[in-house]
């Protein structure tokens, strides 16, 4: 589903190269965990997948279902089924959360040639999704993410993911800022989305999240490259021994 | 030799002076009113204000008012459905208070033409300064309008909507209101029109009695053929609250002056304004607020969206008088500049003569936050729609603060209307 080939990318503003020859393949039905020390390029990779303009791809390609997405803007990527759950979801004053959800769902439906959702059906879906994440509907009456706690923001991201039903989910440090109970709720939400047609990329620092969302593959990112791949035991190994050993092997 | 050349009158000045001569016999008013009218036209004979007059620096009326239409309207105009459902509508159509006066408990309505004829409004025709060009223009020509009196203690269930509508030509209108002690009212001032070139002057005067609560909404949606010169003047009594919401979403040349004075301790004033500016237009909001007694509070928040070649101005002057200790005043003016050809000028002024006060102001000019844009697009909302959402959000924030669902919905509908034609 996702094939990243020899990807090189830099920050547009200052030209700093962050991704330096990254290769990664994630199949439909797979949950891939990407781990790595601070500054290894994990978040950058997630932004590049979503199409953020602050980064420029200088070499290589990203194929989604066999097609390059490099020329697609963020909205086109999203309607094609790519979803990024942000590490730091944006607070947008003045944009009502419900209005935003409705516009986003209907824009995606429009792009797929489907009719817009009728209001009762829309409300029903939002209520169901919110209930499954133990979210209070009153929260959704507020402007988008405004005044949400860190944990509430993360739940709101997963809520959006559930409602938009993407094919490729990228979760950027979704576990940060979550307490144990919230982590469980959010993980259950993600696990409920696991399906043979969907791929999930989980970016995280810690093994903790992977106890709840058990990955099929684990990839270690260091200095903009995947330096080691393995199964879930690799995450346990990193937890026990740190990144130094893996980095040493690769060097 | 002593030869001071009299500056040549502009076409507009000449047209106004000529029109006064022609209209004089038709204008209502007793002797006292006629004296005020004469004074006012004398002020206009001295010339319309230019940018050398400080309060008109950003709106050079003499240069910008290039022509003045004939008096007669081009067409008939009809009253509109009110902004807030169920309102009592008082329409002034082509300058005439054209309605049967309503019978609402606690509300007394009179036609201004009658109050001009009997001279009872003559004292209110005072200009508030030498630079009060709008007051002068209006005093010279005002023919009609309404006086709305809300009885002490009356809590109006229905809003009152004053409509000033024209189909071209000139209309000069006054809308007076007194809200009695302890009364509560929502009043909408609707300023709109259609058709040919128009010159509108409209002066509203409000007295908010002790302990009264008033929300006054000015909804200005003039066509791009109209020059709209308006003034809102208010006195706020002891422990009284006034929220003034001004929405400018139309007009070719617009100046909305807001002149407010707190007259009793505990008075609170809120000004919330949104300027939606498009095309080749000029829109000026100028406020002069006097904190004249101790322990009064005010906040002013103005949000502007500038597109096309539009030019906008906000001047906010807060005078804190010497005895007005414990004044608390905060003013903010934020502009979203969406076009390279548009501009917005902000001039905050604080004149503080008391030593124990909290006053502040801030002004920003920004573009759309590209992080916000990315977030919305990352959810599949295309760039145009995402920008639209963010621009609307920027101004909607001020509306949502009103804390009255019916008001918020009605104003957001006006907002959607503007964005659907200018988005």
Description:
The complex is a heterodimer of chains A (251) and B (423). Chain A has 251 residues and is of the alpha/beta class. Chain A has a single domain, classed as Rossmann fold (3-Layer(aba) Sandwich), CATH 3.40.50.300. Helices cover 38% and strands 28% of the residues of chain A. In chain A, helix 4 packs across helix 5. The longest helix of chain A is centred in the middle third of the chain and has 15 residues. By secondary structure, chain B is an alpha/beta fold. Chain B has 2 domains: 357 residues, no CATH class; 56 residues, no CATH class. In chain B, strand 1 and strand 2 form a beta hairpin. Chain B is globular. The model of chain B has no long low-confidence stretch (mean pLDDT 94). The interface between A and B is medium-sized, with 29 and 24 residues.
Per-chain topology:
The complex is a heterodimer of chains A (251) and B (423).
Chain A: E1 2-11, E2 17-26, E3 31-35, H1 42-50, E4 55-64, E5 67-68, H2 74-79, E6 82-85, E7 92-96, H3 97-111, H4 119-132, E8 143-144, H5 150-164, E9 168-172, H6 180-192, E10 199-203, H7 207-212, E11 217-222, E12 225-230, H8 232-241, H9 244-250
Helix pairs in contact in A: 4-5, 5-6
Chain B: H1 11-23, H2 31-45, H3 61-64, E1 88-93, E2 96-97, E3 107-111, H4 112-117, H5 133-141, E4 144-150, E5 160-166, E6 169-179, E7 184-193, E8 198-208, E9 213-221, E10 226-236, E11 241-248, E12 253-262, E13 268-277, E14 282-291, E15 297-306, E16 311-320, E17 328-337, E18 343-352, E19 358-366, H6 370-377, H7 383-400, H8 405-422
Parallel strand pairs in B: 1-5, 4-6, 5-7, 6-8, 7-9, 8-10, 9-11, 10-12, 11-13, 12-14, 13-15, 14-16, 15-17, 16-18, 17-19
Antiparallel strand pairs in B: 1-2, 3-4
């Amino acid at each position: 589903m996702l094939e990243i080939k020899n990807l090189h990318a830099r920050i547009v503003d200052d030209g700093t190269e962050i991704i330096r020859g990254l290769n990664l393949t994630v199949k439909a039905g797979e949950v891939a965990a990407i781990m790595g020390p601070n500054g290894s390029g994990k978040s950058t990779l997630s932004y590049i997948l979503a199409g953020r303009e602050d980064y420029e791809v200088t070499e290589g390609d990203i194929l989604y279902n066999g097609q390059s997405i490099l020329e697609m803007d963020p909205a086109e990527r999203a309607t094609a089924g790519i979803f990024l759950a942000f590490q730091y979801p944006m607070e947008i004053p003045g944009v009502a959360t419900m209005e935003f959800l409705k516009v986003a769902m209907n824009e995606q439906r429009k792009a797929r040639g489907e009719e817009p959702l009728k209001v009762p059906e829309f409300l029903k879906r939002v209520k169901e999704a919110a209930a499954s994440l133990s979210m209070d509907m009153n929260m959704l009456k507020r402007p988008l993410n405004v005044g949400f706690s860190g944990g509430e923001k993360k739940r709101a991201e997963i809520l959006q993911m559930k409602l938009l039903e993407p094919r490729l989910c990228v979760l950027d440090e979704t576990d940060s800022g979550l307490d144990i109970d919230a982590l469980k709720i959010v993980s259950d939400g993600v696990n409920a989305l696991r399906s043979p047609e969907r791929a999930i990329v989980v970016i995280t620092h810690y093994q903790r999240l992977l106890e709840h969302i058990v990955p099929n593959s684990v990839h270690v990112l260091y200095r903009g490259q995947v330096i080691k791949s393995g199964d879930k035991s690799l995450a346990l190994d990193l937890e026990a021994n740190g990144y130094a050993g893996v980095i040493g092997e690769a060097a | 030799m002593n030869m001071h050349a009299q500056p040549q009158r502009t076409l507009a000045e000449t047209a106004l002076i000529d029109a006064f001569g022609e209209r004089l016999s038709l204008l209502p008013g007793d002797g006292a009113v006629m004296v005020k009218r004469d004074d006012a036209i004398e002020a206009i004979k001295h010339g319309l204000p230019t940018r050398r007059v400080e309060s008109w620096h950003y709106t050079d009326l003499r240069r910008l008012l290039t022509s003045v239409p004939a008096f007669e309207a081009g067409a008939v105009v009809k009253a509109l459905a009110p902004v807030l459902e169920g309102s009592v509508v008082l329409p002034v159509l082509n300058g005439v208070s054209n309605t049967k006066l309503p019978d609402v408990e606690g509300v007394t309505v009179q036609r201004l033409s009658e109050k001009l004829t009997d001279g009872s409004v003559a004292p209110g025709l005072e200009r508030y300064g030498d630079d009060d060009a709008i007051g002068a223009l209006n005093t010279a020509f005002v023919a009609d309008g309404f006086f709305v009196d809300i009885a002490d203690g009356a809590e109006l269930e229905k809003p009152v909507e004053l409509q000033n509508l024209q189909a071209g030509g000139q209309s000069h209108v006054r809308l007076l209101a007194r809200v009695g002690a302890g009364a509560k009212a929502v009043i909408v001032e609707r300023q709109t029109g259609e058709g040919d070139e128009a010159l509108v002057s409209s002066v509203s005067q409000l007295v908010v009695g002790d302990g009264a609560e008033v929300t006054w909404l000015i909804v200005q949606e003039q066509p791009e053929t109209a020059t709209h010169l308006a003034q809102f003047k208010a006195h706020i009594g002891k422990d009284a609250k006034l929220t003034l919401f001004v929405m400018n979403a139309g007009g070719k040349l617009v100046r909305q002056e807001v002149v407010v004075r707190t007259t009793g301790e505990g008075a609170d004033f809120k000004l919330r304004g949104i300027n939606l500016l498009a095309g080749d237009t000029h829109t000026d909001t100028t406020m002069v607020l006097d904190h004249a007694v101790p322990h009064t509070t005010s906040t002013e928040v103005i949000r502007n969206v500038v597109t096309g070649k539009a030019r906008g101005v906000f001047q906010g002057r807060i005078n804190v008088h010497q005895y007005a200790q414990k004044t608390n005043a905060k003013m903010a003016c934020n502009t979203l500049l969406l076009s390279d050809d548009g501009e917005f000028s902000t001039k905050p002024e604080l004149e503080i003569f008391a030593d124990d006060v909290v006053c502040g102001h801030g002004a920003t000019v920004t573009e759309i936050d590209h992080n916000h844009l990315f977030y919305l697009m990352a959810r599949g909302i295309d760039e145009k729609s995402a920008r639209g959402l963010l621009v609307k959000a920027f101004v909607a924030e001020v509306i949502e603060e009103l804390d009255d669902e019916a008001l918020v919905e009605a104003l957001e509908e006006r907002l959607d209307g503007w964005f659907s034609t200018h988005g």
